[in-house]
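Anyone up for a design puzzle?
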C-alpha cells in the first residue's frame, strides 16, 4: 500500500519535467512601415541605385537566448537582425527598434521571462492598407494568432507608421480616424480591449503633411496607449529612415513606455511568465516529494 502510494507520487514528480512544459512567451506584434521593419544601416549606392545593409549590429541588438522571433514560416527561433528580413521581402532590411526594445525590457525587468517578437511591418504601406479585412491586417492577425500556439500571451502592439500618409492632405486629415479604428479593431480581434499599444510619432514623412499626421498621433487619447516622440532622432541620408543608433534609442524609449504598464511582479505574473533561467524552480518539487517519502516511511515503520 505504502509502495503504491510512493509510486504514484514519484510518477507525478517525474511528469512535471521542464521539457514537457510550454514556454510562456511575452509576445509583441511589430507592425507599420519601413521604420518599424528597420532600415538602420541600409545604404543606397546612388550610382547604381542598389541598396544594401551594412551588416553592423549594435550591441543592444545582438541575439539573446531569451529573445525569440516568429518567422514568416510561423516558427519560433532565436531572434537576430534584420528582424523583418523574411517579412518585408521586397525591400532591403536593416536595424529596427524591435531587438533594442526586447533587450531593454530584459535588462530592466529580470523576471520578465521570454520575449517573443512577431514582425509584421511592410515598407511603403499607408494606413488604409492596414484596414481590417485587408491583406496586411489579415496577415498580421494570422501571425499573431499562430504565435500563441505553443504558449504565450500577446503583451503589446508596437506600431510605427504614417510616413506614407503625409503625401495628400486628405489622407493626413483622415489619419486620426483611420488610426483609431485600426487600434480598436486590433484590440477587438485579439479579444484584448486594453492591449498595451506603443506607437511612434513620426520623425519624418514622404510628403508635406507630416505635421498633420503627427498631430493626429500626438492627439490620440486611448487607454493603455503611449506615443513615443521620434522627431529629432538622427535620420539617414535619405531623410526618411532612422539610423541604427536612432533605432536603438527608439527601442529603449518604447521599452520604458511598456514597462510603465507592467504591474509590479506578483504571484500571478510569476506563474504566467517563465524563462529558461527560472525553470529551476520546478526542481523544488522533487526535494519536497523526497521529504514527504521520508516522513511517510518514518510514520509507517
Ligand atoms: C537610391 O538612390 C537613387 C538615386 O538617388 C534613387 O533613385 C532610389 O530611389 C534610391 N533607392 C532607395 C531604395 O532609396
Ligand atoms: C512584393 O511585391 C509584389 C509585387 O508588387 C507584391 O505582390 C507583394 O505583395 C510584395 N510583397 C511584400 C511582402 O511587400
Ligand atoms: C494606399 O496605398 C495603396 C497602395 O499603394 C494605394 O492604392 C491607395 O490609393 C493608397 N490609399 C490611400 C488612401 O492613400
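Challenge accepted. My sequence:
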Amino acid at each position: 500500500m505504502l509502495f503504491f502510494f510512493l509510486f504514484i507520487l514519484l510518477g507525478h514528480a517525474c511528469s512535471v519535467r521542464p521539457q514537457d512544459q510550454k514556454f510562456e512567451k511575452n509576445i509583441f506584434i511589430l507592425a507599420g512601415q519601413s521604420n518599424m521593419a528597420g532600415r538602420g544601416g541600409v545604404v543606397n549606392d546612388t550610382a547604381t541605385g542598389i541598396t544594401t545593409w551594412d551588416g553592423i549590429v549594435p550591441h543592444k541588438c545582438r541575439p539573446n537566448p531569451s529573445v525569440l522571433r516568429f518567422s514568416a514560416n510561423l516558427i519560433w527561433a532565436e531572434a537576430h537582425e534584420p528582424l523583418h528580413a523574411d517579412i518585408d521581402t521586397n525591400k532591403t532590411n536593416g536595424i529596427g527598434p524591435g531587438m533594442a526594445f526586447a533587450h531593454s525590457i530584459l535588462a530592466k525587468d529580470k523576471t520578465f521571462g521570454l520575449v517573443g517578437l512577431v514582425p509584421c511591418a511592410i515598407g511603403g504601406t499607408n494606413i488604409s492598407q492596414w484596414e481590417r479585412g485587408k491583406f496586411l491586417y489579415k496577415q498580421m492577425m494570422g501571425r499573431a494568432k499562430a504565435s500563441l500556439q505553443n504558449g504565450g500571451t500577446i503583451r503589446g502592439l508596437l506600431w510605427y507608421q504614417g510616413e506614407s500618409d503625409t503625401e495628400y492632405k486628405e489622407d493626413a486629415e483622415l489619419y486620426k480616424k483611420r488610426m483609431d479604428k485600426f487600434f480598436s479593431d486590433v484590440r477587438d480581434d485579439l479579444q484584448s480591449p486594453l492591449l498595451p499599444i506603443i506607437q511612434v510619432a513620426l520623425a519624418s514623412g514622404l510628403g508635406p503633411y507630416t505635421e498633420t499626421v503627427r498631430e493626429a498621433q500626438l492627439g490620440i487619447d486611448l487607454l493603455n496607449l503611449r506615443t513615443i516622440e521620434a522627431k529629432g532622432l538622427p535620420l539617414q541620408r535619405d531623410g526618411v529612415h532612422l539610423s541604427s543608433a536612432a533605432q536603438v534609442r527608439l527601442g529603449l524609449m518604447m521599452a520604458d513606455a511598456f514597462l510603465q504598464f507592467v504591474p509590479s511582479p506578483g504571484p500571478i505574473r510569476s506563474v504566467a511568465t517563465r524563462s529558461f533561467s527560472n525553470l529551476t524552480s520546478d526542481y523544488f518539487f522533487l526535494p519536497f516529494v523526497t521529504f514527504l517519502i521520508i516522513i511517510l516511511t518514518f510514520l509507517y515503520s
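A detail worth pointing out: DSSP finds nine helices and nine strands in the chain.
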